[in-house]
Write a structure and sequence with these properties.
7-stranded mixed beta sheet; 11 strands; 4-stranded antiparallel beta sheet; mainly beta
């Protein structure tokens, strides 16, 4: 089993930055794909970004491309999401996700996710 714990959420003004972290425990996730999803109030959970097991390949939703950067440190069993130029529409609960499929593009599908974190709230004020 893999346990995931997100941190780094909070309240920020539009145009500001936040860095989310996801710490994994229970087993090494160095060979797994990892992703961030988010869920805004009244909306479905949506894909944000994914990173391959090595960190060498990434994938982003169009809505965050150029503003968000996903990365990972396998030695620390940790993944990050650097969020810049935040907009009010980025307000959501952000979830860390892990999938055993090694193809990064597959992580866009919720069916590829094997483990979920409990989420961290990001609020962007206008």
């Amino acid at each position: 089993q893999v346990q995931l714990e997100e941190s780094g959420g909070g309240l920020v003004q539009a145009g500001g930055s936040l860095r989310l972290s996801c710490a994994a425990s229970g087993r090494s996730i160095s060979s797994y794909g990892m992703a961030w999803y988010r869920q805004a109030p009244g909306k479905e959970r949506e894909f944000v970004a994914a990173v391959s097991w090595s960190g060498g390949m990434t994938d982003y939703a169009d809505s965050v491309k150029g503003r968000f950067t996903i990365s990972r440190e396998n030695a620390k069993n940790t993944m990050y999401l650097q969020m810049n130029s935040l907009k009010p529409e980025d307000t959501a609960v952000y979830y860390c996700a892990v999938g055993t499929d090694t193809r990064v593009w597959v992580m866009r599908s919720r069916s590829a996710i094997d483990y979920w974190g409990k989420g961290t709230l990001v609020t962007v004020s206008s």
